[in-house]
Amino acid sequence: MEGGTPHVLFVCGSLRARSLNRQAGERARELLAGRAETRWLDYADVPYMNQDAEFPAPDAVRRVRDEVMAADAVWVFSPEYNHGIPGVLKNLIDWLSRPLEPGGAETALRGRPVAVTCAAGGSRGRYCAADLAEVLATARAELVDTARALVALDRRAYTTDELALTPAEQAALAAQADVLMTRLGSA
Ligand SMILES: Cc1cc2nc3c(=O)[nH]c(=O)nc-3n(C[C@H](O)[C@H](O)[C@H](O)COP(=O)(O)O)c2cc1C
């Protein structure tokens, strides 16, 4: 934590440019402005998990691990694909869950605070959020928020690709940002 300012790494479960989850993440970055340094993780080049290629890890994997380990916390924004975690995000988490060295205990995710927000359709992303909680707990990450902010995307959002948060959703996101900052000792 340089100069007392925590670093929060944002991860989007959608790779598309107009991602509504990325837009929700941008709102969160605004909420953290002045309280944390934030940046997005670019992980589109991470290859599929293949245990034959784990040691030494591919360059892209080493880079994303370094970025995660340099962060004080990670905040995931993700859509829900077929009531689950999008494959690209699950693949990233699988790499981050694995030991840095053969037989070692240290991983990029172990003990790292992680917050989760999902923006999706009718389910409001609750299946994906529950999946992420299970997967991240299995990877020994520290899930920060127990009341995860879930955003409902409607037909207007789907047709315009413009995110609009209800006052309740905006408040939930702000509360989640506050919980994360409190966890990082920086209110
Ligand atoms: C493969 C696929 C599966 C999807 N499955 C679900 C789903 O199970 N529940 C849901 O609410 N929305 C589902 N959607 C719709 C997404 O919520 C919607 O496309 C959303 O905008 C994607 O997030 P993004 O805008 O951040 O890319 C699915 C979309 C895709 C591409």
From TrEMBL:
Residues 7-145 form the NADPH-dependent FMN reductase-like domain. Pfam families: FMN_red. PANTHER family: CHROMATE REDUCTASE, NAD(P)H-DEPENDENT FMN REDUCTASE LOT6. This is NAD(P)H-dependent oxidoreductase.
